[in-house]
Amino acid sequence: MELIFWINLLVLSFSLLCLGGLSQEDGAVYIVTMKQAPAVHYNSDLKRFGSSSLTKGGVSGTTNILNKPRNSTAYSDYSSYLVRLQNSLLKKALKGELYLKLYSYHYLINGFAVLITPQQAEKLSRRREVANVALDFSVRTATTHTPEFLGLPQGAWVQEGGPDVAGEGIVIGFIDTGIDPTHPSFADDLSTNGYPIPAHFSGVCEVTRDFPSGSCNRKLVGARHFAASAITRESSILRRIMLRHLMVMAMARKHTASIATGNHGIPVIVAGHNFGNASGMAPHAHIAVYKALYKSFGGFAADVVAAIDQAAQDGVDIISLSITPNRRPPGIATFFNPIDMALLSATKAGIFVVQAAGNTGPSPKSMSSFSPWIFTVGASAHDRIYNNYLVLGNNLTISGVGLAPGTDGDSMYTLVAATHALKNDTTISTDMYVGECQDPTHLNQDVIKGNLLIFGVIFYLDPFVIGFQLNPTPMDMPGLIIPSSDDSKIFLEYYNNSLVGNQTSGRIARFGGVAKILGGLEANYSKPAPKVMYYSARGPDPEDASLSDADIMKPNLIAPGNLIWGAWSSLGTDSAEFEGENFAMISGTSMSAPHIAGLAALIKQKFPSFSPSAIASALSTTATLYDRQGGPVMAQRSYSNPDSTQSPATPFDMGSGFVNATAALDPGLIFDCGYDDYLSFLCGINGSAPVVLNYTGNTCGISTTTGADLNLPSITIALLNQSRTIIRTVTNIANNETYTLSWSAPYGVSVSVQPPQFFIASGQKQNLTFAFNATMNSSSASFGRVGFYGSQGHKSTIPLSVVSKITYNHTVS
Question: N or C: which end of the chain has fewer CB within 10 A?
């Protein structure tokens, strides 16, 4: 396999060389989709699996597509046929011209990625075989304690039989920056239980110098990389080859996989300190990694689509995307982009798709995950925090970022700034880095010995940097970083005022400031949580580039995403403070998404016949609206002093609420929605018929379906013009039960639900009619809830969101 890799590298490099410099200067990468149906769509005899037959315990007469080999002879022959059609098209349309085909897509979408000029792209767009030509675009990357915080050890894991079997038989595909196969979180010999590779999975492990044969095992069952589009961004052929080499050899260094499926009970040792044991949400699930993101620049859609297409063909059950686009997709709707449309086909194939909401909050409409078939996850804090404190001689206490020990005992130590501890032959003008302690050889050891050394750089949050925060920095000696600029000023004022100068020489005669550090190695679990982090992207969901609101609630849910421990490669350099360590603590919605991916594996394990939307429903309707103190979940409203601006979270901040892992395994009622429903929704968008045909091969009839009409576990109305009636259908997957409904209406809206009480037998469905009437004119969003309370103890909640309300039509005569 390594030989094949190098052959492919040489072929690509030679092809680029032969193109005579055709690259991003005069050409670009385009994603071309063709009208012929992809492999997942073509066989009309295959039952459509976007919607499942839901029954108690997950036993169903509906055949799951995962029971049909996705690499069967029929699929393989048809896929080969599609590739031949693609190649024939390029030869005919661009005869005698230079171009470079980077990928063939054939499983989820029928198309290819190609490096061509804009003029060539125009030629292809005019061909009758071509459905759509889209310019490639860039994308970006958006525990020990969180299993306990989510109640897994006493709840969901117990129901599954314990952590040694939690997630068994489920394969999660990660589209991310890769994986370190040597990490103990991904070993397959730590459990006494059997660990067979699921029969429905057919992926492979690519072999490279840093990912040798044998790197995969029964837990890490697949590893591939995709970088063809990224390589074309380099202007020099030598740099292309070097980039390819660096990308592939550093196969994967991020830790999202360990959050979802990392082994149970792995010691977290950082800077010589033990911070407890780590575990993924589904520690016995399997991992398949599809590397399409790279350090510094992120990645490109053409590579991501190739990764998604391959993951689906390999047979993954869940796709976890810790990535978002760098811009809102252009066109008539945000949903029509190559990534989301490939994921729509993945949903049809029975794959649950979870995506990070993005780190572009807290502004409204900052959402970077758009489509209703994608489960979008925002980031919340959990109750653990590592704080250390600087106690000054004037009894003021300043909070710092932890993961470092404190000073010994109660003794106070003299404060000395690095710039005041120079050797006699050293000046600031001759060494600009001395104030940052980057070169200790210039420091006077007699001055600093036994004292607290102050670095000349005080770390604090830059208010102009969106979605950034200081991560706790591990240190093997007493230390502290002050993250607040206000606290930094207080500290420096105390230090400067305590200096005693020599009036004759002008030099410092005595350092009068003293302090001690109280260590930050012990975790504190009293922090109010969960709460929505300021950087977590917010709704309402933007339907198009003009920011019109969609009738779809985003995010779907929030999960732990702030200060999350996870497996880390010692070669990883994405976070410099954890360089050389095997674990790192990182924040972002990238950390939230794999929490949900792992919990979805537990649901899929218990309910094998669940459709993707059924899994989404189970997670959503059982979410909690309250923090651990019993108050409402709060949402931070600014990135400057975020805790001082927080207020109760709305569905546009937290979706249905904070995930409840144990309750999601026994939801009682399910809101199910399938591929045909999503097609009707897309066809209902004004002017969408040609685009739907181009992406899916389906012809739109007359459709008035909006996002509000989809059978989702939420109701969102962007514009309530006087009144509107919405239908929802629930399916009972538990025992016979009687449900009573109660609701609170959004401000400015009256709501009624029929029937307000109903009996529903196991496996049966019940239609519900929601009537909304505007009672005032308003363009401000307001929110409500509907609760379903079962006689056997089940409880489901769905959020109601109404943005604009109009009580009457006003006509100017």
Answer: C
CATH number at residue 727: 2.60.40.2310
* Confidence (pLDDT) at 181: 86
The pLDDT assigned to 172 comes to 96
Highest mean pLDDT: which of 243-257, 472-486, 710-724?
A: 710-724
For residue 264, indicate whether it is catalytic.
Answer: yes
Distance CA(568)–CA(581), nearest Å, equals 7
173 and 86, same structural domain? no
Q: Distance of alpha carbon 495 from its chain centroid, rounded? A: 43
pLDDT bin (cut points 50, 70, 90) of residue 453 is: low
CATH number where 120 lies: 3.30.70.80
CA 447 vs CA 22, 421, 429, 444, 508: distances in Å: 61, 6, 20, 5, 12
Q: Active-site residue among 41, 106, 183, 264?
A: 264
* Domain count along the chain: 4
| Catalytic residue list contains 627 | no
**365-384 tens-digit pLDDT:** 999 899 999 999 999 998 88
Record the tokens describing residue 597, joined without a space.
């991916």
* DSSP states along 99-150: -EEEEEE-SSS-EEEEEE-HHHHHHHHTSTTEEEEEE--EEEE---SHHHHT
Give pLDDT tens digits for 176-188.
888 888 888 888 8
Q: Which amino acid is at 303?
A: D
Could you say which DSSP state residue 541 is in?
P
Running DSSP on this structure, what letter comes out for residue 276?
E
Q: Which is the catalytic residue, given 590, 613, 656, 688?
A: 590
Same domain for 513 and 538?
Answer: no
Q: Which of 176, 309, 653, 672 is catalytic?
A: 176
pLDDT of residue 679: 95
pLDDT, the chain, mean: 82
pLDDT of residue 29: 93
